[in-house]
Amino acid sequence: MWRGFTNDILRDLSMQHIQEKQNWLHHPRFSEPERVLVRLEGIGKSYPEEAGDGVPILDGIDADFARGALTAIVGRSGSGKTTLLNLIAALDRPDRGRVWIGDTELTGLTDEESTRFRRRHIGFVFQFFNLVPALTVLENVRLPLALNRMDDAAGRSRALALLHRVGLSGRLDAFPDRLSGGERQRAAIARALVHRPLLALADEPTGNLDHKTGQEVMALMTAMVREEGLTLIMVTHSPEFAGRADRIWRLHAGVLALPE
Length: 260
Prior knowledge:
This protein is an alpha/beta fold and 260 residues long. The chain is 36% helix and 23% strand. Strands 6-7-8-3-9-10 form a 6-stranded mixed sheet. It is globular.
């Protein structure tokens, strides 16, 4: 499902298409929340199989994620962690239940409304980076600005500042295939934050990196998220990296719970 977001980006590379988009201001039903930024209410999700009613992945999940907090979701492979992130990002829809970001119910939006909301308010860091191969480092980071009609002088200055912060000032014109894995992920972090989203979602952000590089990338990402005052929800297999979070949820047998 993360592939769908990349396809959105590639489809929108045409500047003519960008110019035809509606005004990308905040969704009219979105307003500043109180303490909680993300709320899940009774979330259930199953995947169909050839025989039977389907395989349940998530079963009645209720959870709140605080504004400005770094939250880790841990669990074994196949437990539904990525599925849960997809539902929070409105890249997929639950079979039952509701997903809220602020006072916007994402499960009540049309597909087009979900796309606009996601592009404006959510930043993504993927395990496999998902940089656009045909764009340079700087162009990749500026892409969310273009999609949100924010690629003015101030936006370009912010992109350059973030690339300096992640140590890529000397790689602005490099293409992704000329970067190391750590450099690609640092560029992806800058891209995720450049449009000042309310929520950052990271799906195994160190899963494709060696341990030392993963440590460096994780330290950089968590520091920048805290500097920006963002809310981060991160899926990880690493107890070490989960330990950097303010709160850890464990997903097991379709149920999300706080460890005892």
